[in-house]
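note to self: dont lose this again. the chain is below, predicted strucutre after it. 369 aa total, dont forget to put it in the shared folder this time
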Amino acid sequence: MDGTGSERFDTVVIGAGQAGLSAGYYLKRAGRSFVILDANAEVGGSWLNRYDSLQLFTPRWAVRLPGWRFQNKDVRYPSRDQMIGFLQEYAERFDLPLRTGVRVERISSGGDGFVVSTDAGRIEADDVIVATGANRDPRVPAFSRELDPAIVQLHSSEYRNPSQFRDGGVLVVGAGNSGADISLDAVTGHPTWLSGPDRGHIPVNIDTWIAQNVAFRLIRFVGVHVLTERTPIGRRSKAKHQGDPLVRVKPKQLLAAGVERVPKTVGVRDGKPMLEDGRVLDVANVIWATGYRHDFSWIDLPILGEDGELVHERGVATGQPGLFFVGLSFQYSAASDVIPGVPRDAKYVVERLLSRDRSDVGRELSAAA
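---
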């Protein structure tokens, strides 16, 4: 504690998911005084808020963070719970300084650094790494408030399994990978509609040997090294991104299971969801698989541009020396917010952080394992 009753660290990392833990690995190797804060009761990041049946698209051999990789060789694609276990094992293995159950309420400037205000007290730091990614604020359309109160409404981040549904039909709004997975869960016991535009699908079965060991290596290479901020094709891909194709679930699987594909949900009529073609669905449950929005309102610093977007260069906040980000969507590449891309971005950010301290100039971190 200092004279103001605050704790002080060189660096505060906010978020104990894959991005925050990767940053913590490099900070510890550099001998930095730091702490990792997370509002959840345990380590696990956004995986803690995903549905029970979730499986990664990343094969077991490619699930790795700096210095350590997923160890269970009997698994092809880790499940949600296995991924949480991997992150917890990682934090323990490298003895990272964690404080869970601590919610960060505000970041502001203070003296020569920053003040991180939490529900457990105040912390001062020279640098702050925000590793909460872009998935902090679930996105739900405003017209959802007009639905009949008797309809069960859940964002996909709140959905765990079909036991949460009332008897009756289920409308899943958002036809991406999460929406497709949840609709297959739902249709086992409920009439189910999947609403939203078709963004295409990967035509191969990802559970085959060739998909896991050949196709994924190619996809990973493109996502990490080709689709980046430095390449014209990468910049065009970022600007035109309209949603991801289905990866594991294929349209024919949805059809065979009895899931009905319907157009976009655009409003409410008589308390029931209304589709773009004017149809009204009489359902008892609505799942909003509609993603997340950026929410940086808790950062009390001028970090947004005129367009409301975060202004940064590869996670280094422009005009705010000492403020960094890891885990953002397309922070540097198309893989920046997923396992294959996180370690490189964390390494880059920590190197930039260390370069601010004269005693650390010229220090280079070893390549990620």
